[in-house]
Amino acid sequence: MKNVIDGGQNKFDIHFKVPTQNLEPNETMMTHIPGDQIKQAMKLADMDLLNPTQIDLSVHAPVNNILGVSLSHGEEGDIPLSTHNRALLVDHDKQAAFGYHSISTGARVAPVHTLNLSASEEQRKENSNIVLKRIDPKWMGLGPENAVAGSFKTKIDGQDKILVSDQSSSGVPSAVHRFLVHNDTNAKLFNGVYTKSRVKTTIAPNGRSAFIMDPAHYNDTSASLKKSLTTTSPFQHGLTASITNLSDSKITSEQPSFVNVTLHRTPVDRQQGYVSREDSVIAQQDVHALTGTSGTSGVKAAPLPYTEATEMTFEDMDSVAGGDSA
Predict the structure, then answer these.
(1) How much is the pTM?
(2) Which residues pair with 256 in a beta bridge?
(3) SS3 letters for 134-164?
(4) Quick check: 98 and 89 in contact, CB under 8 A?
(5) What is residue 312's predicted lDDT score, i.e. its pLDDT?
(6) Burial of 323 (C-beta count, 10 Å sphere; 0-12/13-18/19+)
(7) Which helix (H) or strand (E) holds 201?
(8) Residue 128 pLDDT exceeds 70
(9) Which domains does the chain have, with CATH numbers?
(10) CB atoms within 10 A of CB 298
């Protein structure tokens, strides 16, 4: 059987059963699914392969109470969902508006509400190949903690050096050591000082053979690997559905409510690989790009000589404009 990295689904349904029985006014109940369960159900080798684009959201509640529905990440729902879409409940009696991702107005079934998701770090064009490199067998199972594992600061002949062994004293594999091993014929890497014929080795304090690295080379390599091996998708923290009772009365139904989520995504493409996406949010910089302008002219004025300068007052404006005083 093939080693599947992406199950290929372009959408995935999750139905949250939320215990809203006897929910008091302004009280909230939530249900959570861990990120690992989402990853396993979708047959993803890495959560950064999820590449979500939007969520279709609805709620089915066996009550006539007004309910506010929100989605978030984390077991406690403390990590916001990256979307600017909101549904508003404008309450005349309270003279206030309440924003949620969806609202059930007491008709038992709320309409489907679409949430456009902002692009997260791994979805941006400059990072699109990082996750594909990370799922290479030589990096599978490694995380950011492996970027410093097996490394020891020392001095050799009075100069600072870093000793990089294949694992830490507790057995955690070293990503830097693995990187150097896989580049031992790469003459372009740091001018070839870590190729087989030129690399220097010694025995590290953990008793294992270690490469001797220049601190600047080590810092560059370790920082790059730390970024490459760090999962950034907020869905790694799972998804949490929360329901808040917005009515003035307690929910009397003994039946739970259901939050229905359809997660839309872009699978890994056989030809294009990981398909990056642009953020749907328009920022001020985007407007400058469209109009061909920038926030400032970017041109520094050359100083011109002058003999005397007097600070102007409001009354001076008419004389400058050539008008008469009022």
Answers:
(1) 0.80
(2) none
(3) HCCCCCCCCCHHHHCCCEEEEEECCEEEEEE
(4) yes
(5) 58
(6) exposed
(7) strand 201-203
(8) yes
(9) 11-125+233-265 (2.60.120), 144-228 (no CATH)
(10) 6
